[in-house]
Recover the amino acids of this structure.
């Protein structure tokens, strides 16, 4: 059970941001009406409730305010003008982030393990975004909510609900790391060493100028989204699914790479990401067959993932560019091909080949994207797996001064049928893989996943 201790609104320091607007770019528009990202970060906290109330809460409020001065879009709103024109990210003095402090009597040590846990146990630790407001006939939708939950004398969790249209994972993790460092050092972020490299870069003209859009894809994206009325945040009810974390050790990943290199000698993009996604996808499809789900011979399976394109634009965008800069990929295979003994190799060839085609050969960023919504609307989402997170984010480096991060979870994968990926806690070359599935399917996946790794030894 979770008991709310305090709800407050945290703003940037008065008068330091003012009124600002950011237009949505080509990269942002496609995330309109997309699900919100819900994530959790767990730290040990061997202190009583009095310490949390008197020391931790004031410190977190103060440091968050300092960071919002630089990451002001998170305090702002997604503004839909009354003219039904394109929305924008808008901030004005007084805008704020809803920050909730709560207390839980749940077993903290159980939550941070890799073993099977009910996904419903995590939902109370996730905040809900405030409702949409109407102001001067314009809709204002908050984009970030935070909940910090105390497990007395045991731990503390940071829960986030974020609107993807404002920022991708790279930008969000930069915000997290800056808040953590500011809290730890109790210094204004602009005074930190190397501040220019870690503070967000907001030049929206830069990405727009760099992307050739001869087919006017941005306009097509906006026309598509105009067909759907914006309804604001819809709270999600927990499912009966089970959440579990699987660890691919560095040695496992290398053996999987070796297997692909032997079977696919012409495939140049055989990365840790490629083999992890391919192996997981194949195991998930095999688990369906294992538990007796009917699989027709011509049934199609789909895998969706994105790639950060900041470094691949010419010239590249800085790593601290704030917003979205992701290019989507969709690969498809017949179920029977993935269930076969070489299903992992088939999946790796598809995923690695798609990345090799787009990034390795430097194809135009929007090539083929005019068909993106048509392709997505035509596939069976029940047979689709996505990806949340990235091992490149280095989330285990997020240091609030509370000791090392113990565990991180992406709770929204329960809604999106995605897998979550993070670097290993003890070895950055390991990969943590998170899944939320019905127990019977998760049990089957665990057996297939473990036994399959033995084959590649």
């Amino acid at each position: 059970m979770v008991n709310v201790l305090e709800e407050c609104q945290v703003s940037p320091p008065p008068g330091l941001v003012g009124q600002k607007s950011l237009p949505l770019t080509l990269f942002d528009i496609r995330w309109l009406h997309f699900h919100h990202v819900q994530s959790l970060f767990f730290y040990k906290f061997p202190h009583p409730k009095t310490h949390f109330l008197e020391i931790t809460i004031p410190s977190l409020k103060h440091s968050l305010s300092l960071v919002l001065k630089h990451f002001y879009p998170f305090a702002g709103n997604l503004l839909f003008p009354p003219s039904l024109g394109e929305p924008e990210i808008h901030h004005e003095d007084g805008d704020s982030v809803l920050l909730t402090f709560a207390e839980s009597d749940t077993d903290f040590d159980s939550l941070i393990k890799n073993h099977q846990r009910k996904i419903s146990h995590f939902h109370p630790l996730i905040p809900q975004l405030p409702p949409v407001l109407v102001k001067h006939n314009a809709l204002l939708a908050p984009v970030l909510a935070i909940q910090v939950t105390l497990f007395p004398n045991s731990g503390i969790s940071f829960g986030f609900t974020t609107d993807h249209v404002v920022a991708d994972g790279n930008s969000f993790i930069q915000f997290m790391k800056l808040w953590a460092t500011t809290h730890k050092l109790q210094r204004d972020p602009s005074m930190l060493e190397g501040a220019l490299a870690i503070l967000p870069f907001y030049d929206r003209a830069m990405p727009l100028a760099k992307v050739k859009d001869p087919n006017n894809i941005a306009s097509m994206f906006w026309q598509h989204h105009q067909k759907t009325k914006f309804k604001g945040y819809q709270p999600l009810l927990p499912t009966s699914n089970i959440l579990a974390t699987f660890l691919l050790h560095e040695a496992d990943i290398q053996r999987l790479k070796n297997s692909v290199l032997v079977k696919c000698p012409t495939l140049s993009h055989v990365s840790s990401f490629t083999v992890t996604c391919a192996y997981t996808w194949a195991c998930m499809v095999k688990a369906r067959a294992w538990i007796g789900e009917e699989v027709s011979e011509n049934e199609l399976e789909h895998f969706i993932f994105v790639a950060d394109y900041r470094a691949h634009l010419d010239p590249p965008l800085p790593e601290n560019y704030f917003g979205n800069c992701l290019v989507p990929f969709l690969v498809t295979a017949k179920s029977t091909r993935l269930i076969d003994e070489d299903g992992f190799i088939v999946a790796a060839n598809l995923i690695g080949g798609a990345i090799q085609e787009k990034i390795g050969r430097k194809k135009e960023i929007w090539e083929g994207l005019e068909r993106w919504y048509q392709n997505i609307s035509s596939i069976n989402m029940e047979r689709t797996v996505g990806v949340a997170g990235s091992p490149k984010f280095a989330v285990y480096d997020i240091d609030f001064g509370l000791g090392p991060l113990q565990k991180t979870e992406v709770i929204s994968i329960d809604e999106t049928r995605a897998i979550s990926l993070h670097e290993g806690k003890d070895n950055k070359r390991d990969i943590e893989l998170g899944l939320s599935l019905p127990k019977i399917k998760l049990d089957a996946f665990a057996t297939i996943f473990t036994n399959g790794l033995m084959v590649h030894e």
In short: The two ends are 44 Å apart (CA to CA).
